[in-house]
Amino acid sequence: MVFDTGLTAQFDQIGPLLIGLTWLAGLVIAAAVIFARRSTLP
Transmembrane stretches, by residue range (predicted)? Predict the structure, then answer.
């Protein structure tokens, strides 16, 4: 983000940023589900 705004007048990479944040959120949710299932097993 800092590099993009340093080269252009506005931040024009919102699409890839949202894709990356969505992917990261999905990964965190998947890890939480796996951790929760493994911690409840006997």
Answer: 14-36
